Amino acid sequence: MKFVNILLDKIKNLDTKVVKVMKSGFIFSFIVCILSSMILLTYEAIYSLPTLFYIGISLFRTSLSFAVAFFICGIGFDTVQKEIG
């Protein structure tokens, strides 16, 4: 529980520039996630090509990886920025 409180405190005290970069990264990840969902929906409804399924799953995993990377790098960059300045 202590770790969760520390993480929430760090998120609340992020710099505004870092928050803007994180938000744009989340929007990019969300757009890629929507694209992968559309591809998977196409696979399910219209075409049953295995290649289409693997493309959709691969894009979905990529979008999740981008979202997590933006979150972790944003917190790390803010921490380094506060330590320097």
Radius of gyration: 17 Å
Counting DSSP H or I runs of 4 or more residues, the number of helices is 3
Outline: elongated
* Beta-strand residue percentage: under 5%
Oligomer: single chain
| Through-space gap between termini | 30 Å
Q: Give the helices and strands as they follow along the chain.
A: HHH
Nearest-integer average pLDDT: 94
Share of residues in helices: over 70%
List key phrases describing it.
3 helices; mainly alpha; 85 residues
Structural summary, described in words:
The protein has helices at residues 2-12, 16-45, 50-84. The chain has 85 residues and is mainly alpha-helical. α2 packs antiparallel against α3. The longest helix is centred in the C-terminal third of the chain and has 35 residues, at 50-84. The model has no long low-confidence stretch (mean pLDDT 94).
